[in-house]
Amino acid sequence: MSKGSSRLSLGPIPKPEAVKLTISVSAELKAQLDAYAEVHGRLHQAPVDAVALIPHMLAAFMARDRAFKVMARR
Asked: Which Pfam families match (predicted)?
């Protein structure tokens, strides 16, 4: 797969500065995260664990949430 033919919403993963959190997800969501990680790894030619994607997905989601941004400023 060439880099120009497809794009995921999530780009390459930077090295983390992390605070550890523990979450539980459904088996279906875990399977979807694993599939996304596999596609992401192929596209960016760098294997990535699904768990490493979660913080970046959450950050991207929050960055796009306009209502949250407005309410957080109040």
From this structure: DUF2274 (PF10038)
